[in-house]
Amino acid sequence: MSDTSLFHATPVFPRGFRCASRNVGLKPTARDLTLFVSDVDASAAAVFTRNHFPGAPIILGRETIKGGVLRAVIANSKVSNVATGERGVENARRMARAAAAELGTSADRILVSSTGVIGVPLPIEKIEAGVVGMTADLLGDPMVGAEGIMTTDSHPKALSASVGDATITWVAKGSGMIEPNMATMLSYIFTDAAFDAPTLDRLLRAAVAPSFNMLSVDTDTSTSDTCAILANGLAGAVDEAAFLAVLIAGCTRMTQILARDGEGAEHLIRVEVVGALTAQEGHVVAKSIVNSPLVKTMVHGADPNVGRLLMAVGKCFECTIQPSTTDAWINGYQVVANGERLSFDDEIVRTTLSQEVVVLRVALGVGTGEATAYGCDFTKGYIEENAAYYSS
Amino acid sequence: MSDTSLFHATPVFPRGFRCASRNVGLKPTARDLTLFVSDVDASAAAVFTRNHFPGAPIILGRETIKGGVLRAVIANSKVSNVATGERGVENARRMARAAAAELGTSADRILVSSTGVIGVPLPIEKIEAGVVGMTADLLGDPMVGAEGIMTTDSHPKALSASVGDATITWVAKGSGMIEPNMATMLSYIFTDAAFDAPTLDRLLRAAVAPSFNMLSVDTDTSTSDTCAILANGLAGAVDEAAFLAVLIAGCTRMTQILARDGEGAEHLIRVEVVGALTAQEGHVVAKSIVNSPLVKTMVHGADPNVGRLLMAVGKCFECTIQPSTTDAWINGYQVVANGERLSFDDEIVRTTLSQEVVVLRVALGVGTGEATAYGCDFTKGYIEENAAYYSS
Q1: B347 touches chain A (CB under 8 A)
Q2: Can you tell me whether residue A179 is helix, strand or coil?
Q3: Surface of B (116-135) touching A: CB under 8 A
Q4: Reported confidence tier of residue B4, pLDDT bands at 50, 70, 90
Q5: Interface residue B221 vs chain A (CB under 8 A)
Q6: pTM (2 decimals)?
Q7: E strands within chain A?
Q8: Do the Cβ atoms of A37 and A136 come closer than 8 Å?
């Protein structure tokens, strides 16, 4: 993974941000309720899932984010509060009010998230009782919050980086039901740089497009995807271009971390498409490759069955594809030239496919469009986790 | 599966059709070369894959079928002759010439198919030597041909039915890399009814649209999909409407047989979408559900996580979806009403999901469009087969 030097060895929060998480009885013992809090009001922007069945927190969140100001995020894991009707939306409102009461602010400054099983009523009383006193637990360690929002994640996910005098911190979760569209699973970004809400919204969308929106674990777009950014301004103004560059780098790295931790995954797959007719066609081809079950199992088995790459390119019916100009590489080793499989050394391909990060590069030779997508291999672990997710 | 009474208990060929298959050394011992032969010239039509990297036999087949007349189909398994360049096309031509010489006809009346690994040169000398003398082996049992074209199929696949005085026989293979578009994997249909080639082409397309084109094992569209029909006319004229009805019924049943034998599959999944704005939107929603890894693993685990159905409907961003009018049933048992999960009995859903055939029905309530798609569950067997297909 690139740009590792950009990130702090141990993630920290920007000035004025803290978090707390605890078990309130939604899960047997693990942390299941989390607060991320700014000491002062923060400018805020967010993008949400495009799924037609948005969860109740998404319905409320779209309303809340219109104000452009947040003090805190409250998130629970285990139950997603999706497909729960009017009562679900009322429960999301009660969750915002409970957090607001604990923090001494108003409910319209609280962003609510829920993640977990779809279609199960939110145990709102446990959350209302559980949030009381959480202010006393607030700490400066983002990992505490990252742990509280985990579902099938194998580890908590947080990053931080400096830009000028300011800090940006990313906290995210997500492992399955991931092909975000407009946003990602739950991903929160905190900064003490000063930006107004419209600027933050523009920067967030610019950063999400090449990162979280190019991630796919399983083609399944969650009903709860949320990516929010809070800027409390305590570090003052920061150069916008520098800020955006770091914001994109962090979102991209978090995307790779999420992909590598895809349910059951053993490899991170990065698909680079160049020479497409347009960037949009590059996007379609990159997603087709990263989502192909046969490509994903090829990487899993380190099986040099590279014809599957061509199959996955070729099934993009609406794109301009010319076999005679199509080349492909695996971790820099060329395996296809002009649409024909080269007589490569199987052992070299087997060895490179066994690496933790597998880069599949395809040059289409019909234009200048480019796109990069992120995903993971397909393993028995994915089947195992998802054949009994609800029941476990 | 419906309409079983339509089909003969043991599949037979129409008048004048026979087949033979043998091992010619492509596989260690299993049959790998097959001939389907009509005693007389037959009117013919075919549809092929829309994949941008069509195999050499597809390139040749598109040329051959223009003549509208076939005497025979020659097919090999183990090597697909895809991504093999000009030499691949020349090898396909040699394969047609070898069959023509054996049968005493011209190469433009031979349809060639190859199925197996992509990007490996076709061992054409073994095929040329192997086809010699196959005429002596020709038999009236379609299962012999069905066995010769198998790759990862767990059993040979053939059906036959009567229509008036004529017979229709279907022989097919296919287990993975299946989301046909315009056609299916290898599927051959033989009849002694008399139709001219343009009529056959129209009937074939009408039958393929609601059957093979609604099948998906893994979203991966093969580079070799071929569905051809040969009508040798030995039974004389048959009522066209009656013929089409039986043709559709057989193609639909063969689609279900292929879906149930999807790589690693333990269940046939039939997705029925009604009330879509248009038939096309119904098609998109049905395919989204049948292709969702999380729906497929839900069925595999008999896990009553029905929110995943809504997720898969909701990720059809471009379709008209209204949560408030969306209902869903599993094998007739209602689990969603007006976009909300009902408080159903988990045990009933678990039990019904454990049946071999699982029907997922979704009513969108926004129009009169309908579509039915066919697929299978996602299991560790799929991962196992495809992590080492090339190498095994």
Answers
A1: no
A2: coil
A3: 117-120
A4: low
A5: yes
A6: 0.86
A7: 17-22, 33-48, 69-79, 110-117, 157-163, 166-173, 186-193, 226-236, 268-276, 327-330, 333-337, 340-341, 357-363, 369-376
A8: no
